[in-house]
Structures are given as structure tokens and as C-alpha cells.
Amino acid sequence: MERHPLASQAFIPMSGHPYLVVVAPPGPTPDAQDLRVFLAQPHQGVNYAPGVWHHPLLALDAVSEFIVIDRAGPGHNCDEITLPQQGIIASRNG
């Protein structure tokens, strides 16, 4: 998981495939129960607000390309953590 405290970050899909968006609220290190998973369709982009924890994008059907809009400039703008595995399973069928 990562967050960008100084600015938002946007992803625009270019490959025509669905993908998963995994987020947790801003704040201290999230727990597994804080995670929310969304199925994004090929025509939907996502813009993470500053401080929102998010997993790198998870392409589902094929390797996918995205346009990434990110902040440039001085200052630390990326915090990264590893969450312990909790056996979380996302299903597209219900």
C-alpha cells in the first residue's frame, strides 16, 4: 500500500480491461478491515485524494496500460507499507 501526502494521484486506463481499486482511509497505517475493493470498468479512471492509502492497480484480464498523473516537485510524497496477508479474496462473481 502507498499514499501520497502532498497531492492527489490519478490513473486513466488505456487498455480496455477492468481492474481492481483497493483503498483505505487517510491516517495511520491501515488494517485489513479498513480496506475497500472496487471493480473499475475500462472506461473509469480513478483519482486518489492526498493521503488516501491505495494498492498499486490490479489488472484483471490482461496486462494493462494506464496514464498516470502525479505530482512533480520537491518534498517527500510517497509513503509505502506492507500489510500482513489476511486471506482477503475479491470475487467478480458475487
UniProtKB/TrEMBL annotation:
Pfam families: Ureidogly_lyase. It comes from Thauera linaloolentis (strain DSM 12138 / JCM 21573 / CCUG 41526 / CIP 105981 / IAM 15112 / NBRC 102519 / 47Lol). Keywords: Hydrolase, Lyase, Purine metabolism. CDD domains: cupin_UAH. It catalyses: (S)-ureidoglycolate = urea + glyoxylate. This is Ureidoglycolate hydrolase. InterPro entries: RmlC_Cupin_sf, UAH_cupin, Ureidogly_lyase, Ureidoglycolate_lyase_dom_sf. GO terms for molecular function: ureidoglycolate hydrolase activity; ureidoglycolate lyase activity. The keyword Lyase applies. Homodimer. GO terms for biological process: allantoin catabolic process; purine nucleobase metabolic process.
